[in-house]
Amino acid sequence: MIAYDIVVGAGTVVAAWLLALVALRSRRTWLKATYAALALTFIVNGAAYVGTTERFLSSDWESAVLWSMILAHPLTAILVLGLIHGETLPRRRPAIFLLLLAVPGLFVLTPSVDWAVRHAYEPNPLGAFLIVSLGIALAEPVYERLTSSLLATDSFWLSVGVVALIIGGPIYNYEFDILGFAQAAGSNLGMPIALAAFAYVAFHADPFPTPARPKTRKWSGTSGLPRRNAIVFDEERPAYALETARSEASQGRPVLIIARASLPPGPDSDGPAVGVMEPSRHGALKTLATGSEFVARHPGAVVAIPDVADVVMMSGWEPTKEMILRLRQVARDTKSTLVLSVWHLTEKERRELKGLPLVWWTLPDAAQEIEAVLAASFGSGARHLVSAFCRAKGLPRHEVTVEKVPALLEFLNRAIGELSGSLADAAANQGLRAQAHVAMESLQAFAARSPEDLSHGEWPSKTAAASDRELVVTAADYWKGKEVDELFGAAQGLQEKEPLYERTRDVFVEQFGDAGEGVLRSELAKLGRKPEELRPEDVARLADRAAVDLGAMADVVDIPQEKVRIRSQIDAIRRRLEAIAGDQS
Amino acid sequence: MERRLVNLLVRGFLLFLLSMVLVFGFWEHRYFYQVGLYNLLLLGGLVTFLVLMGFRLALSGELPRGRPSGELTFSLEEGDRILRKAVDLTVHPAEGATLPKIGQVVRARYDTGREFGKLLVVDGTRKFLSDVTDEEARSAGYRSANELRTAASSQWKGKPGDLVALIRLRPVGART
């Protein structure tokens, strides 16, 4: 029956092509290995079957048909469960690997007790083993199809694959036997359909591209964030979530941030790895795969999702909720930590998330708390100080985070220096400096507080002590009755003292890292200006030119998320340069 | 009228092809008649059913994306701009709304209630209204982010701190 052999041969070629596709395109090592094992087994099975039937392989190869057929069944079950449970399969369903232990015994026993390949699916121990393997492979997707919103679609395709194997295996075996075509035993016509369905599911759950983690210093195993946990950072912007991730990474702990856009480079080389989400309706599944794959490679790691709403927009709320629960389980299994930031979730989604077993840290707005700390020393002048600082650095208020505290301290030092120069009275000067000293210490203490500590709710804005207010009154007395508000109004002129080039350079470096200064210098060269000749009107022109030149750069980039990232950087640069130019004029 | 005729001809031709495929399948599997009437009815019936279902989906034009589910409402002006592909982004309030996800095909309606087409959701993000950039506002058909905020304020009383969904769309069929 040459036609049947041609079909089996064609199926084998398709299997080889699918194997190459998965091997080249999949980013998931564990699944790639499992898929390769199954596909190779089917390829050997198909080639040995066609070779021995068409007599271009010796009859010794008939044993290859037998062992490959036996081995393919447990491998199918392992791959199907692996596609559902991912890297956690060895922890969640370790018993599945016991099926492999039976393979050598069955292979050795089969010829001796006359279970020929043609009787493989009949009632005997071999038949029972094969049917149990296929039964497990079918039962798990059916269960997931009924219970999981995240895996419902993929479970369907997994079921299609297993059903194809059942039809091409036991059912066709039975039919061909009735039709008197016993030579078909040992082959499986459903094999390419099954492999195609499994590959389809594997690509749905392919992780987002993640750069290889640079070699960093060894992690001691101790750090601030609790392990085996999923922590929700409830804050207005994901400031603490990102800061915590960076802080953990700087201690050598493996950290992965899964975000829609690349993040600006951090201050040091020990920064976290960033997996950039690509728009996909399988976003929740891909996020789960990205996180699972990372913590499987780096047990004890931190996986941070700075905007859970991005996943919701891709896949919907129910799959996202399930993804969070599954990632939490992965984190528990691998002694890792999951960090979630929920700033773009709706009220309803937040309520539902609070019902899940997650650790919930409600965190303050850093800018507001910094203002409260300053207010304890300077009263209403704190508002002027913070807004002057924002103007000097070209920052919108919401970007004032604890990371900016060192810069704020430096700014405060200069501000106090300026202000004390305007006070003739030595006692008032001393009072002002004492107050500034207290404020700086309080700011440093606030910046040093961990998110866990802050989550207890004792924030400076809530616990402004009466004693501090008394001190302000005392200082105001020293300042000869000058209103503190009026006094700090003078701080608004401070930004003019900072060299214009330095402020402009800070903007570029913040967005592009060290390369930012080179970009700025080339833009200056096009304007025909040297750094020391930079004027406020040049900054406005620079904002326009940078937007045009960098926009052209974004246009030639083919990767959509990179294009978005560059455009957001251009937008940020333009906004801040315009702010600087506005201040100066 | 002419378009309907073309549609009818194409669908008729495809149905004829399907009939030929089925007849070929019966001929190819003629030996299977030996498995017995009841086995044949069950297995052959299942296979034929799946083939017919597949063709039904293909002919309805709903493959590979599935049936439209959910809907988005637009003003007359905004709806026309989307149909003409002059804009590909729409900004909707996120709070209290059922938002479509990526890959979903939604029915597009004018705020008068009339359906005017089907739209494929290509991408989606959420932002605070105050964070929407000028470029995003231009993609949504406004001259600037400020103009968008003004429009949001008048259309749904949107405030700068409100959460909005930025949904990128592609028309996949107009209702004529």
Describe this structure in words.
- The complex is a heterodimer of chains A (585) and B (176).
- Chain A is mostly helical and 585 residues long.
- Chain A has four domains: 2-204, Rhopdopsin 7-helix transmembrane proteins (Up-down Bundle); 229-362, Rossmann fold, CATH 3.40.50.300; 366-493, no CATH class; 500-584, no CATH class.
- Helix content of chain A is 64%, strand content 5%.
- Chain A is built from 24 helices and six strands.
- In chain A, helix 1 (2-25) packs antiparallel against helix 2 (29-53) and helix 1 (2-25) packs parallel to helix 8.
- The longest helix of chain A is centred in the N-terminal third of the chain and has 27 residues, at 152-178.
- The model of chain A is unreliable at 470-476 (pLDDT under 50).
- Chain B is an alpha+beta fold.
- Chain B folds into two domains: 2-59; 71-174, Sulfate adenylyltransferase (Roll).
- Helices cover 43% and strands 23% of the residues of chain B.
- Chain B contains five helices and five strands.
- Chain B has helices at 2-28, 37-59, 76-83, 134-139, 145-156, and strands spanning 71-74, 89-93, 105-110, 115-128, 163-174.
- In chain B, strands 1-3-4-5-2 form a five-stranded mixed β-sheet.
- In chain B, a hairpin with a 4-residue loop joins strand 3 (105-110) and strand 4.
- The mean pLDDT of chain B is 84.
- Chain A binds chain B through residues 171, 175, 178-179, 260, 279-281, 283, 307, 309-310, 312-316, 344, 346-348, 567-568, 571, and chain B through 31-32, 34-35, 43, 94-96, 99, 101-104, 122-128, 133-135, 163, 165.
The gist of it:
By secondary structure, chain A is mainly α. In chain A, 64% of the residues lie in helices and 5% in strands.
Any descriptors?
heterodimer, A: 585 residues, mainly alpha, Rhopdopsin 7-helix transmembrane proteins, Rossmann fold, 4 domains, 6-stranded parallel beta sheet, 24 helices, B: 176 residues, alpha+beta, Sulfate adenylyltransferase, 2 domains, 5-stranded mixed beta sheet, 43% helix
